[in-house]
């Protein structure tokens, strides 16, 4: 009589155990909440399936809130990409002292994650009605920001300027490796052929960097579009953007329809997902040139 073959043991490398906390965190705080939002966007209050919540996104002030959010995201992403690229190029190619690069990258790593209530308070204390810069300009130069310059921290441009605090550092962190990947041989070859510095950037460097620039712009757009805590803490209900309307909808300040709030959140997920997929695709294309 033959003996039964011993059961095979499932041997997992110990290195996989290190991924368990991260996997559990992603599951609990990303995958499951996202799935709950997507399912809730297609349900009624009693749990039955419906498309009415998606249709209702085109009613009331919801379309205008999406449009304002898109404009703020485009403005902050454009300015953040432009200023961040200029700063990264300056420290990469030696336009400023080399010792500035390390502190700048360190600060960028911290500032790119600085948001929410602390960031809103910092900008209110600086540019608010009784902020440091506001009082300094009024007392020393007689300049009133809102009256003379039309600037109000609780407005479109006020929120855009606030977003720049984390948009510019994020741009610096992402684009610096791409700038460092530009080979010296390319510039030298362009100079040997008689190209000026402007021609080198226009015909060689920028075409190579274009996928990285466009991809980073898409990431900055998604970063601003999904910002919630900073917008709510800074403007409250004075600015009609999607995160504020979503917060009010779920809390019950407007119509008290949580499923419509889920549909609004689902719309935000779709927009940010498209931007992130575009970033990943362009990043892969850029890495082919910079390897």
Automatic annotation (TrEMBL):
Cellular localization per UniProt: Cell membrane
Domain ABC transmembrane type-1 positions: 66-279
PROSITE patterns noted in UniProt: ABC_TM1 (PS50928)
Membrane topology type: Multi-pass membrane protein
CDD domains found in the cross-reference section: TM_PBP2 (cd06261)
Keywords: Cell membrane, Membrane, Transmembrane, Transmembrane helix, Transport
Recorded coiled-coil stretches: none
Main location group: membrane
Transmembrane segments: 20-42, 74-96, 116-137, 149-179, 199-221, 228-248, 260-282
Family per record: Belongs to the binding-protein-dependent transport system permease family. CysTW subfamily.
Descriptive protein name: ABC transporter permease subunit
Lineage, uppermost ranks: Bacteria, Pseudomonadati, Pseudomonadota, Alphaproteobacteria, Hyphomicrobiales
């Amino acid at each position: 009589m033959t003996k039964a073959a011993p059961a095979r043991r499932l041997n997992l490398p110990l290195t996989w155990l290190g991924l368990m906390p991260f996997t559990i965190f992603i599951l609990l705080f990303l995958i499951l909440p996202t799935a709950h939002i997507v399912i809730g966007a297609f349900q009624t209050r009693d749990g039955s399936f419906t498309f009415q919540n998606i249709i209702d996104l085109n009613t009331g002030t919801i379309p205008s809130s999406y449009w304002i959010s898109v404009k703020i995201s485009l403005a902050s992403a454009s300015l953040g990409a432009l200023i961040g690229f200029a700063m990264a190029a300056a420290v990469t190619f030696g336009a400023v002292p080399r010792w500035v690069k390390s502190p700048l990258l360190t600060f960028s790593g911290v500032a790119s994650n600085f948001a929410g209530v602390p960031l809103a308070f910092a900008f209110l204390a600086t540019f608010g009605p009784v902020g440091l810069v506001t009082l300094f300009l009024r007392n020393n130069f007689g300049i009133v920001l809102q009256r003379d310059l039309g600037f109000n921290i609780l407005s479109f441009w006020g929120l855009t300027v606030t977003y720049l605090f984390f948009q510019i550092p994020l741009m610096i962190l992402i684009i610096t490796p791409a700038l460092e990947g530009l080979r010296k041989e390319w510039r030298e070859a362009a100079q040997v052929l008689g190209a000026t510095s402007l021609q080198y950037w226009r015909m060689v460097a920028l075409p190579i960097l274009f996928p990285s620039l466009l991809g980073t712009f898409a990431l900055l757009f998604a970063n601003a579009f999904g910002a919630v805590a900073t917008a709510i803490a800074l403007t409250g209900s004075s600015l009609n953007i999607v995160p504020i309307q979503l917060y009010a909808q779920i809390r019950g300040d407007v119509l008290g329809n949580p499923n419509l709030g889920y549909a609004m959140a689902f719309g935000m997920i779709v927009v940010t997902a498209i931007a992130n997929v575009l970033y990943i695709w362009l990043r892969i294309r850029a890495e082919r040139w910079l390897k």
